[in-house]
Design goal:
This protein has about 240 residues and is an alpha/beta fold. It has two domains: about 30 residues; about 180 residues, Vaccinia Virus protein VP39 (Rossmann fold). It is built from seven helices and nine strands, in the order ααββαβαββαβαβαββ. It has a seven-stranded mixed sheet, sandwiched between helices. A two-stranded antiparallel ribbon has the order 1-2. A hairpin with a 2-residue loop joins β1 and β2. α3 packs parallel to α4 and α6 packs across α7. The protein starts with a helix and ends with a strand. The model has no long low-confidence stretch (mean pLDDT about 95).
Amino acid sequence: MIKKIFETIETEVRTLRGLIYYRFFGRPDSESIVGEFNKLYYNYGVFGGTWKNTFWLGTRVRKYPTDLWVYQEIIFKLKPDVIIECGTGNGGSALFLASIFDLVDRGKVLTIDIKQDDGRPRHRRITYLTGSSTSDEIVKKVGSFVKKDHKVMVILDSDHHKEHVLKELRIYSKFVTKGSYLIVEDTNLNGHPVEVEFGPGPMEAVGDFLNERRDFVVDKEREKLYLTSNPRGYLRRVR
């Protein structure tokens, strides 16, 4: 109980500190500067640089290094038993998460993708599932993998169109334990601030989901490094 009180106080102090900084030292154009740099970083990746040219232990990781840094902070603090990842890609992010789990000496990664790829990295903490993240078959397998006493975190990074992301949010939110995170990746799409013509995507799905639910809140503290592909995408379960 006392620990929770101190954690709450610590969070409030950080928030107050941020407000004081922006009030007295922040630049009026800081938001536009951050937005422009995010666009620069993202757009260069489209041509094979930045986030498309980032590797973890030799495997491509199509994520921002700043977000990966935040992931390791969350893992160290929460020490989840399972991370469910929807969208495996090359398997680089699963390998990254498994490597951090090695360092904290606990945890498994359950990663899901519609495509099978035998060239993905092998690791004792990684389990691969092939199929749609929203199919009954896959959801049933996830339910069998996760035990009742597990502390669970979820990362959504598969099909980025709103309808699919919202369906994932509704399905996988039930696996997230109180105090842990449901992370929606690439909320920067559809003009937030990149790919204006993308159409409704993760950001819009998050908006609808939060309108439906009161047990998740946006944790803006996880955007502290400014460069993120997940603005308003770090959702913490509070009840």
